Structure formats: structure tokens, C-alpha cells
Amino acid sequence: MSMPPLPAPLAEALRAAPAGLPKRERTRRQLLDAAVQVFSARGVAQSAVQEIAAVAGVANGTVYNHFQTKEEVVQAVAVWLADTLCRRISESHEQVREGAERMSIGNRRYLWLAEQSPAWALLLLDVVSSAPLVLEQVQAYALADLRLGIRQKSFRVASEVAAMDLINGTVTQAMRRVAYGMAPVRHDIAIATTVLRGLGMPYDEALAVAKRPLPEFGPAPVVAAAARAPARKR
Is residue 108 included in any domain, yes or no? Predict the structure, then answer.
């Protein structure tokens, strides 16, 4: 049971970890790696803590030393994947100053992930949908670009909430279509154009922005923040 490889820029970021982690944190990371494999193979809903322990090569009790429930495991995996992959995608266009182009690049990068690594894209969608609070964290990147585009008068929207539903719904459905091999050629450009149109841009302008070349990924950060468990209720 193993995951196919991610594109190199994302794989480097996901592998990165602070040097000299204490044993407890190393075990936690081992459990998250195992959970990724189990969730990918069986889906979040059908997975069990016992399977995660078996893949990690530890006793069931070791999992419960770190997570009280399977839901906590899902939350931790969602935080880890979302924070690492979404941050890395955002970093690829941090030098772009135009909100509309940033929005287009972000949209297209997620479809690129779905094309290059379908299993990882579907896993990301699965775990994030099972952890609603993490969905807000993921959407924060697009929200920042939306607000920038509004300030620059590129976007005109009825409300931020409606605009975010448009962006999230369109891109996540497109990711599934791409991951399942059902998308036409240049679907990423069509989706980015459609989102920009929905945010108020004229068609010709939206298409021109969507067709701009994607920027290259810069070097991966040497150290990535370790995923942290959600605070336990007392």
C-alpha cells in the first residue's frame, strides 16, 4: 500500500521536516504517513485506526497515544497536506502582483496537481471535505487573491462568500474531472477563464490572463512546519 509520487516541487515540501525531531514527533509523522496511505487506498470514511497502526507498524495503542479518535487523525492529515501543498502552490506565484493572475495561477495549479498526481488530488479533496475547519484554511489563499482583485478593480462580486463558493465549487469539481481522466485538453485554462468571468472580468481579458504561462516553482523551503494535533477538549 503506497502512494504514487507527487511532482517534485510538492514532494520536496511534504518530505521536509525540522531537524532533530523528538521521538514522539517522529512517531506522529510516521502515523500521518501511514494514514495518508490508508485514506488513499480506502477513502476516509472506510478507513479504521487499526489499519493505520498496521501500516505504520505500531500497536493500536500507539495511535491513541497521539490521537483520541479517527477524526483527530483526519484533522491532522488535512492540516498537514493542506498547509504544505496549498502553501507550496501559493509560493509559486508570490511574486505576482495582479490579483486576477494570482487567481488564475492558483486555479490552474490545483488542476495541474490533479493531472500530475490524481491520487494525491483526490486524497486532498477527501480529507479537507472531512475537516471543514481546514477548508477555511485552504480557502484563505484564494480569499486573499479575491480581495486583491477587488481592490485593483479587476473583480466585481455580489459578496465574498458567494465568490468563494463559485471558486471552490468550480475548482474542486474540475480537479475531480481531471483526476478521473475526464477533462478535455487545456481544461485548466478554460476553468481559470470561467472563474475570472464569474468574478466580473470581460471574456477576452479573462482568457488573456488565464493563458499566461505558469511561473516556475522556486526552491522548496529547507524546513517545513510539523503538523500539530488539534487541541484536545478538557
Answer: yes
88, part of any domain: no
Contact residues for 54 (Cβ-Cβ < 8 A; gap 6+) = none
Tell me how far apart the alpha carbons of residues 84 and 61 are, in angstroms, rounded to a whole number: 28
C-alpha span between 66 and 189 (Å, rounded): 43
Q: Judge if 150 and 198 occupy the same domain.
A: yes
CA distance 103 to 99: 6
C-alpha cell at 176: 475531480
Same domain, 108 and 142: yes
- Domain assignment present for residue 220? The answer is no
Question: Count of domains in the chain?
Answer: 2
Q: Cβ atoms within 10 A of the Cβ of 132, count?
A: 10
pLDDT in tens, the chain (234 residues): 566 677 777 777 666 655 566 888 888 888 988 888 888 788 888 889 999 999 989 999 999 999 999 989 888 888 888 878 888 888 888 899 999 999 999 999 999 999 998 988 888 888 888 777 777 777 889 999 999 999 999 999 999 999 999 999 999 999 999 999 999 999 999 999 999 999 999 999 999 999 999 998 876 655 444 444 444 443
d(CA 81, CA 114): 14
- Residue among 126, 128, 133, 130 at smallest CA distance from 86: 128
Alpha helix segments (H runs only) across 118-202: 118-129, 132-151, 160-179, 187-198
* Same-domain status, 118 and 153: yes
